[in-house]
Design goal:
The chain has about 110 residues and is mainly α.
């Protein structure tokens, strides 16, 4: 059985591992037990363990539900927000005309 193995870039793995650790810390600070979290988020214990380890194969929807339970879901909508997309904003700025010119008359 030849299964495709997905390879994730190291910065992606690091970011997800940090997200998972931060989620676990936030859960503990809020005194939400693992059992409470799995009930409130509608997930299983193994799925919570994957989230808290930053498993990249876990769906974004699962991460979103866990963040919602923690009250941290608001910033999720801003992850790719244009206001924080410095590269995109710079590229858009390059498309602007350098100077305005008067309309040509015949």
């Amino acid at each position: 059985d030849m299964r495709k193995t997905t390879i994730y870039p190291t910065p992606v793995k690091r970011a997800l591992a940090k997200l998972g650790a931060d989620i676990k810390d936030a859960r503990i600070r809020r005194r939400i037990t693992a059992e409470m979290m799995i009930q409130r988020a509608g997930i299983t214990r193994p799925t919570l363990a994957k989230v808290e380890k930053g498993d990249p194969a876990t769906s974004m929807g699962i991460y979103a539900k866990v963040l919602f339970v923690l009250g941290l879901h608001d910033r999720l909508a801003e992850v790719a927000d244009i206001r924080f997309d410095q590269v995109g904003l710079m590229l858009d700025a390059d498309k602007l005309p350098k100077r305005a010119s008067a309309p040509k008359t015949i």
